[in-house]
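BUG-136 | component: ligand-complex export | severity: low

The export step for 2-acetamido-2-deoxy-beta-D-glucopyranose jobs runs without errors, but we want the raw record kept on the ticket for reference. Input record follows.
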Amino acid sequence: MFATATLAAFAALLLTVRAQIPADCARTATVQSGDTCNGISAAQNVSTFQLAHVNPGIDAACDNLQVGETLCLGITGQDCTTVHVVQSGDFCAAIAATAGIPLATLLHNNPNVNSGCTNLGIGEVLCTTSETINYS
Ligand SMILES: *[C@@H]1O[C@H](CO)[C@@H](O)[C@H](O)[C@H]1NC(C)=O
């Protein structure tokens, strides 16, 4: 009885996790023990915004990652793979200049960053591609 219920719950969990991976997912990663959203983002070359956008099941504080869970890292056609990890003292104009892209492109591709660039967090991962990514 207990085993049956446990198996059913596990199957439901697997279905839930699998249902979160979009059919047009370009690449995935499996959550390891100790992973954080910014850590996964930095290691996998995905922006903090993109990881959260593609995986709406991750809560705002990113404290509900499940070890073994598969995350989609980017949707085909909307997948930024060129990134910069924010360091202490970084500001948007300098990050854009270093990446060789217009500030407007940086802001467009990182919709979580405000227009004055006053809400950067250390360890946050920004998309720094010169291409324009239109997230749907
Ligand atoms: C992330 O990007 C860096 C710099 O281009 C590259 O060296 C590294 O192999 C990339 N890592 C992954 C997982 O794509």
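Assignee comment: Attached the raw record above. Residues 44-45 surround 2-acetamido-2-deoxy-beta-D-glucopyranose (CB under 6 Å).
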